[in-house]
Write a structure and sequence with these properties.
By secondary structure, the chain is an alpha/beta fold. The chain folds into two domains: 113 residues, Response regulator (Rossmann fold, 3-Layer(aba) Sandwich); 93 residues, Arc Repressor Mutant, subunit A, CATH 1.10.10.10. Helix content is 38%, strand content 24%. It has a five-stranded parallel sheet with strand order 2-1-3-6-7, with helices on both faces. A hairpin with a 2-residue loop joins strand 8 and strand 9. The longest helix has 14 residues. It is globular.
Length: 217
């Protein structure tokens, strides 16, 4: 059974979410940043409040993305566009403003699990690049690198369609979906840049100006 980590200091909301989700998932309830860090590694999805007693929820997004690509859905009363974009750019997969519909949240959770890459492309090995998508293990010259879930999906799609020019629209829709809100178009180029930095000294991603990208190897 999938494990959902709730990080929410509102005890009533935390309890209500736990009761509603326990019918389909195993739920871990936490109320602070420090407490939640004990459970991130064993969770499959995070429901994250932004205003927590011991800090900003953005800290949890950054902390999680250092080692994990699990889906993160933000639940917050903060509806500032710049803040939402910051959360997405740091690695959040979705953002719901409070108050929100439980039915919509459950649909987004289901969708988040469905969008996790189920790779028919298992292994990719070329020169010093060694990727195992099924095990989420990525090595450059035998050194392990950590990719976010978004970076993993971009890498997967480019390699799956190697030697083909993939338009920005196709790549964007594969990673985020056509109905995602609050996704800045610049987010794609930011993630491509991060992947390139992590794959150095190799440079397998070619930019086809005005069109999109191509995996060269």
């Amino acid at each position: 059974m999938k494990k959902i980590l709730i990080i929410e200091d509102d005890k009533n909301l935390n309890k209500g979410l736990s009761i509603a989700l326990k019918k389909d998932y195993k739920v871990i309830s936490t109320f602070t940043i420090n407490e939640s860090k004990n459970y991130i590694d064993i969770s499959d999805l995070i429901l994250l409040d932004m205003n927590l007693p011991d800090g900003d929820g953005l800290e949890i997004i950054k902390y999680t993305r250092q080692s994990s690509s699990i889906p993160i859905i933000v639940l917050s009363a903060i509806d500032l566009e710049t803040y939402i974009i910051s959360a997405i750019n740091l690695g959040a997969d979705d953002y719901l403003t409070k108050p929100f519909s439980l039915g919509i949240l459950e649909a987004k959770i289901k969708r988040a699990f469905e969008k996790i890459v189920s790779c028919d492309l298992n292994l990719y090995q070329k020169d010093g690049l060694d990727f195992n998508f099924n095990e989420n293990a990525f090595y450059v010259d035998n050194k392990n690198i950590c990719l976010t879930r978004t970076e993993t999906k971009i890498l997967y799609y480019l390699i799956k369609n190697k030697s083909q020019v993939i338009t920005k629209e196709l790549l964007f829709n594969f990673v985020w979906g056509v109905d995602d809100e609050f996704i800045d178009q610049n987010t794609l180029s930011v993630n491509i840049s991060r992947i390139r930095n992590k794959l150095k000294p190799y440079d397998p991603i070619e930019t086809v100006f005005g069109v999109g990208y191509k995996w060269k190897y």
